[in-house]
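S.,

Sequence below, as promised.
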Amino acid sequence: QVQLVQSGGGSVQAGGSLRLSCAASRSISSIGTMNWFRQTPGKGREFVAFIAVDGRADYGDSVKGRFTISKDNAKNTVFLQMNSLKPEDTGVYYCYASGGTWGQGTQVTVSS
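The prediction came back faster than expected:
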């Protein structure tokens, strides 16, 4: 079973940027769609973004235009670039591989 190791995140002021990484233990092209979710206070687990094997991507409404998902197939890594961060983006972000594997989670804190 694939393993996912996340890195990045941290604390930033509103309007700032952060980048999350999710490194897979095997080829992400063989895994399929890679996703980002987040767990925010009061909203539960929320879809953030996905990227398909062919590079097609989509986003949750609350992050469209601010977040960008990308991947490096050679490094088996998926990224989430988060710009124009808002306090309501605060939460724990999880990488998820189709097939049912979750990353360990990364805390993102945005202060006003």
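The helical segments are 28-31.

Coffee later?
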